[in-house]
């Protein structure tokens, strides 16, 4: 089964009850939500006013759910995953570690090129909007 990715871009309070993720919003017009923890693969926390309980974190990790937090620029800054990894994650890490040096260098070169292109695009957009 494909696991769900949940993205939180607004203030929220995240907790757990009966193996479900409970989502409460400070705005009264937004309804509470529930999601079965076993259906979640990733959670992305983008807003700085998101509160998450330790009980929820433990249940997410026990279900091999990754939690990604973002900084003020909306860029991922941390990645929380279980110490006992998912078989797919372990396999990916094993492939990355066993990659040949030329492949690693080529991939690093591609990464740097794309980062430079993205930075240039960002600076151009910023210059237009100034």
Automatic annotation (TrEMBL):
Q: Which Gene3D superfamilies match?
A: CRISPR-associated endonuclease Cas1, N-terminal domain
InterPro entries, alphabetized: Cas1 (IPR050646), CRISPR-assoc_Cas1 (IPR002729), CRISPR-assoc_Cas1_N (IPR042211)
* Keyword annotations from UniProtKB, A to Z: Antiviral defense, Endonuclease, Hydrolase, Magnesium, Metal-binding, Nuclease
Instruction: Name the Gene Ontology biological process terms.
Output: defense response to virus; maintenance of CRISPR repeat elements
Pfam families, A to Z: Cas_Cas1
Highest taxon of source: Bacteria
Query: What is a GO molecular function of this protein?
Result: nucleic acid binding
Record text on subunit structure and interactions: Homodimer, forms a heterotetramer with a Cas2 homodimer.
Q: What is this protein called?
A: CRISPR-associated protein Cas1
Q: Which organism is it from?
A: Aquimarina intermedia
């Amino acid at each position: 089964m494909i696991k769900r990715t949940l993205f939180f871009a607004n203030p929220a309070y995240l907790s757990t009850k009966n193996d479900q993720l409970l989502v409460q919003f400070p705005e009264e017009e937004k309804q509470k939500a529930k999601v079965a923890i076993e259906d979640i693969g990733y959670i992305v926390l983008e807003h700085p006013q998101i509160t998450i309980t330790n009980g929820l974190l433990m249940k997410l990790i026990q279900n091999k759910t990754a939690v990604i937090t973002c900084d003020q620029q909306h860029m991922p800054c941390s990645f929380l995953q279980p110490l006992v990894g998912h078989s797919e994650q372990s396999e990916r890490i094993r492939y990355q570690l066993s990659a040949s040096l030329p492949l690693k260098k080529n991939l690093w070169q591609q990464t740097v090129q794309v980062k430079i292109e993205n930075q240039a695009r960002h600076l151009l957009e910023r210059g237009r909007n100034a």
